[in-house]
Amino acid sequence: MSNEIASQAVHTAYGGVVPELASRAHQQNIVPVVDRALKVANIEPSQLDAIAFTNGPGLMGSLMVGTSFAKSLALTLDIPLIPVHHMHAHILAHAIEGAHATPVAYPFLCLTVSGGHTQLVRVDAPKNMEVLGETIDDAVGEAFDKAAKILGLPYPGGPHIDRLAKNGDDTFMEFNRSNVANYDYSFSGMKTSFLYALQKHVKETPDFIEKHKADICASYQRALLDVLFDKLEKAIKDTGISNVALAGGVSANSALRKRLHNLGIQKRLNTYVPPLEYTTDNAAMIGIAGYYNYRNGEYADLSISSTAKAKF
Ligand code: KG4
Ligand code: ZN
User: Fold this and answer.
1) Which of the residues 58, 77, 124, 201 has an alpha carbon 20 to 30 A from that of 272?
2) Substitution candidate for ligand 1 out of 250, 251, 259, 278 with most atoms within 8 A of CB
3) Does the domain at residues 9-90+280-295 carry the CATH identifier 3.60.110.10?
C-alpha cells in the first residue's frame, strides 16, 4: 500500500557507508518514515496485522535500530513480529503483485547482486530457496563502487558507471576475469586489476582517466557482467530451469538488464527484471517476504536479536 524509503544521503557525503553514521541516520529516520508510510497507505496503526522487519544480514547498528523499533511496535499494538531475511526479500520482490505483467513462474533462478552480496539462487517456492553459488570475497556492487571511487565518482558509484558506460566503447580495455569453482564468484581480484591497469596508464598518460572515462567504465562493466553471466548461463544449462530473474541493487544496471533480456530471446527463457523501485533496498520487498513468513506462522518473540551474518 506504500513503499517509503528514507534515502541515506549521509553515505554520499562520506564516500561510502560509515556504520556509525548509518545507525544514527536509521535512528533519526525510522519514526518519520513509518509515519509517512502509514499516511501514504491511509491506514491507522490499529489496522496493522503484523510488523515485519529485517533481521539480517546487514550492518549490526542499523539492524538493531530496526529490530528494536519493530519489537516496540509489535508489543504496543499486540500484533505478531515477523523477522525477514534481507536476501530472501530482494528475491521475493518478484512476487509483489504488479511487479511483472505475467507473474513470476517457479522454479526460477535468481541472480542476486547487491552492495553486500552476489548469489545465484534456485527458487522453488517463496519458502523454498537454495543458494547454488555466491561470492567468496567482495560483492559485485562493491566492485562497481570501488572502481567508481578510483575514477573519482560519487558514492554509490554503480549508477555512475552505468550512466557513463552508455557512451563508452566496451572493448577499449581488457580486465582479468576471475574464475572460481562451481557457481561461486570472486570480485576482489578484478577490483585490484582495475586499480593496477589504471595506475599504469595514468603513469604514461596523466589525463588518461579524464580522456577515457566512458570507455573505461564500459570495459570494466562488461568484464563484471561477463563473470556474472558465465555462472548464470552454466546454472541455466545444468538445472534446465528456464525462468530467470535478477534482484538486488545492481539489477538496476541497464547493461545487465539488457543482457538478460537478450539472453532470454536467444535461449528462449522467461526473464524477469525487477521494476527499478524494487531493485535497490526498499520497504515493499520486506513487506512481501514478511507476508510469506506470516502465512507460514514464522513469528518471533521479543527476545529476538539482529544477526549481521544471518544464515540464508
Ligand atoms: O541492494 P542494495 O540497494 O543494497 C545492499 O543491500 O547492498 O545495493 C546497493 C548496490 C550499490 O553497490 C550500488 O552501487 C549498486 O547497488 N547499484 C548499481 C546500480 N544501481 C545501484 N550498480 C550498477 N549499476 C546501477 N545502475
Ligand atoms: Zn539489499
Assistant:
1) 58
2) 250
3) no
The CA-based dihedral angle spanning residues 51, 52, 55, 57, taken in that order and rounded to the nearest 10 degrees: -160
Q: Which residues contact 102 (CB under 8 A, 6 or more apart)?
A: 270
Residue listed under C-alpha cell 543482457: 259
What separation in Å is there between the alpha carbon of 221 and the centre of ligand 1?
Answer: 13
Atom of ligand 1 nearest to the CA of 221: 23
Q: Is this model's pTM higher than 0.85 or not?
A: yes
Alpha carbon 237 to its chain's center: 24
pLDDT tens string, the chain, 312 residues long: the values are: 999 999 778 888 888 899 999 999 999 999 999 999 999 999 999 999 999 999 999 999 999 999 999 999 999 999 999 999 999 999 999 999 999 999 999 999 999 999 999 999 999 999 999 999 999 999 999 999 999 999 999 999 999 999 999 999 999 999 989 889 999 999 999 999 999 999 999 999 999 999 999 999 999 999 999 999 999 999 999 999 999 999 999 999 999 999 999 999 999 999 999 999 999 999 999 999 999 999 999 999 999 999 999 999
Amino acid at 269: L
Supply 207's cell numbers: 589525463
CA 80 from chain center: how many Å? Answer: 27
Domain 103-273 has CATH 3.40.50.300: no
E-only strand ranges, the chain? 51-56, 81-85, 108-113, 118-125, 128-134, 243-247, 270-272
